[in-house]
Amino acid sequence: MALFDKAWAVRTGGQFVLRIEDTDRNRLVPGSEQQIVDSLNWLGLTPDESPEQGGPYAPYTQSQRLDTYRPVVDKLLASGHAYHCWCSQERLAAMREEKAAKKQDTRYDRLCYGMTKEERAKLPGFTETPVVRMYIPDDAPLVFHDLIRGEVKAPFPDDQVILKADGFPTYHLAVVVDDHEMKINTVVRGEEWISSTPKHLLLYKWLGWELPAFAHMPLLRNTDHSKISKRKNPAARLMWFKEQGYLPQALRNFLQLLAYPPAEGDQELESFADFVGNFAWSKVNTVGPVFDTKKLDWLNGQYIRELSDSDLADQLVDFIAASRQWGDDPDPSWAEVIRRATPIIKPRLVKLSDAWDQIAFLVEADDSVYIEDTARAQLKDNAGEVLDATAKVLATVEPFTADAIQQALRDELVDAMGIKPRQAFAPLRVATSGRKVSPPLFESCEILGRASVLARIAGLRETL
């Protein structure tokens, strides 16, 4: 929603507003507001007006705007479009259960409508502090125009509570009042709010306010086509992607593709600027897109390779430090190793989190290199002889660079000794990395340096 809000605001020269809608006090989660702010900033979708930045219609947190809503409620009560309801939660639950058993409509039965507090108190299921409900007329508008879906018909609504017993408005009243007060002319939200739109249309009509345009976006789905749940799917928390090593531009591009699939032949890699330039609500796919991270992985790899080696190195150093992949008290020299290794692992990276596993061997102590069983098993019977010849060459090769190392070893092991390249270099790879597969061998040797390489060769040689 934020992505499309921001794109539409940029395209039309409007303002993208972040408003914190916190009137449901039972569902507040500590830290969630900051997580919203952090997610938008990380994705490059920074709002133009918000609680942090302020703006002409501050405050932008609904719990700080209670004085704005009460006069509207009083106006609706005075005009007969709303009424007090003293029904207890127990009475409401019993009513719905009874109606459901009879297969009747479970909407509120309007027991309190037209009653005074004293009259209602004489009946069962009374509570001292009332809520305020809308009085939905029989001719409530059920059809409205949607920017994405065209003409939409919603179900007939219930007598919606608009002011709760705690004095806080519900979403339905607060969002209409705030959208009017803040001059919001395009409301972008999820398709689950389609059924609530008739209530909002009525409020705009009763209050004599101009209607905004509505765009109801499709809901994202898991690979099993179930709705993504914040409680069950960690990916519903956007900062999870940062923690996993995804780039913000890749995730943003992925979200663009999900709800706005490219036509055949279109470029899948698309900047936000290009997305804005080609924006049209009619292109939004109304079928709930499946959130499959395989496409995201591919996009992330592409964006990683578009980074300069220097920029990628900076991001890897920051990520590895922040995620503590190198421990709580890393040697400062490791950052330079990461920078030197970045060019050789860049073609293989899918996420930033992949880097440490590939280069950790470069900062291990020479006598602590763990030799994997699969790596040791691939060594031939002549591995000891090959390691001896390798050590002799590397002890004198100058300069100790990847190109010089490769040429010298080819001359001795491949040309002079007649060993096939794969078998000639495998012992050195196992000695230096402990693995059957590692980043480019000769570049790794250059980063390690002569002393470390020779020490690791000696360490493996003693075990053969």
Automatic annotation (TrEMBL):
Residues 2-298 form the Glutamyl/glutaminyl-tRNA synthetase class Ib catalytic domain. Residues 313-458 form the Aminoacyl-tRNA synthetase class I anticodon-binding domain. Its EC number is 6.1.1.17. InterPro entries: aa-tRNA-synth_I_cd-bd (IPR045462), aa-tRNA-synth_I_codon-bd_sub2 (IPR020751), aa_tRNA-synth_I_cd-bd_sf (IPR008925), Glu-tRNA-ligase_bac/mito (IPR004527), Glu/Gln-tRNA-synth (IPR000924), Glu/Gln-tRNA-synth_Ib_cat-dom (IPR020058), GluQ/Sye (IPR049940), GluRS_core (IPR033910). It catalyses: tRNA(Glu) + L-glutamate + ATP = L-glutamyl-tRNA(Glu) + AMP + diphosphate. ATP binds at K230. Transmembrane segments: none annotated. PANTHER family: GLUTAMATE--TRNA LIGASE, GLUTAMATE--TRNA LIGASE, MITOCHONDRIAL-RELATED. This is Glutamate--tRNA ligase. It comes from Propionibacterium freudenreichii. The lineage of its organism: Bacteria, Bacillati, Actinomycetota, Actinomycetes, Propionibacteriales.
